[in-house]
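Next up, a specimen:

>
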Amino acid sequence: MTSTAELTATWAEATDLVVRSDVMAVVVTILLIATWAAAGAIRVRAAVPGAPPRTCLAAAPRLMLDLPGRPGRQTGGANATAGLGAAASSVSLLVLGSGAAGALTLLLTRGHVPPGFSAVGAASAVALLAATVSGVVVRQAHQSKEATGRWLTSRGPHLGLAALVGELALAGSVAAAALALGHTEGVEISGLEVFAAATVARLLTLLRHPAGGAGVADAVLAGLLLGIGSSAALAVGTVVLWRVGMLAGWAASSLMARLTTPLENVVAQTLEPSGSALGELLHRSAFQIVAALPDPLARRTRRLVFQAMFSGSDDPWQYDTMPYEVRKRSFLVASVPPGARTILEVGCAEGHNLRAWGEAHPGARVVGLDISARAVATARLRASHLPNVSVFESDLSGAVATLTRAGASGIDVVVLAEVLYYLGRPHDVRRQLEPLAGVLAPDCLVVLLHPAADAKALHAAAFAALGAHAETSTVMLDDARPVVLETGRRT
């Protein structure tokens, strides 16, 4: 058992080591402060692209540590940020969980198995860690399903990328601190192994409330550093620098919070889409990768993705609450002329457009198709008061059979709104839409609505697949996210 005298001596040695590191200790402390602040700030910016830099820095600790907001600062926008902390924490846990499992595997393969542990026991510990992380993520998502689901569906990929970049930077800064102290001590230490140890320790900070998790994380980081061959003074000194950086960044953020607009107010005032170029690129790239998979696997993957999205929220794209979506819906609904007999929307989601057409065209039959069973159930409920609206679960591969069974052939209006980019590249769009032409009337009106870049890349392929020639093109000029609505006619 370690005596009090030994502990005191270790602390004294660690303090002396930090002091002797002189300029390097100051530099790595500044690096740690900046990394803590930046890692949190990019999470906030990823979630709320319209947030000013000062607001991002002020709210950073809450997204880094899943802390509740300060009661005195919350306003009517508090509901808008409900679940953001849980969503950010869940994404961070998933990133760190896989990272920590890999880090522990690295340490074990390099011979750093704790005394008394067999390789099987160590592997079991890794598996237990992965199971624990998964359980915590599921519990957090369940506790705040609706609010968390909205953030994950609307900003999940952005939060994931921000978490990955932030955690890599944070672990790297801890490794820099250990290497600096090791240089002063005159010993060599593996930066990669310190990086792995920091990843495991950071994960433990989020597994419980920070008040308890931070202490456990500190002990684990020190223990792992000792396990990879560092001295007790170096291990303690690294932990101290890590926590000094976090606390200093936290203090600066808290001070800034008193001088800037609270995040809740920013979210409440920024209820429009971000138009993030990076976000659009990530979104499109992910589904282009899915489209490159074998067709059965691609269809199954899309179905799972959209089932997960609608499991988190009945309105993941905020069609009911976002003014932009209301404007876009009015723009789209007005594109269908009077006298339409059968209106088909492919990818109808939760049925907002179907309900609008059903009410605007009571003499027409309105049919919706969607790949998600949960979305179909929600759409049916939303349009349950409209006898002329029907909704079916189907992807494009089964669309013709589904529509034929429903007696919905000879369709004279078909609408695809913000759905083509989920199908992949132009050749994927054409291949998957071509069978649908068999249930369209000879003079069917084809209505396509997508952001300008997607319209330019994909609308021609869609018209060609459905045997239509483009007739009109209209831009919904909008500061938030302009979209292009094009119509074409089969001849």
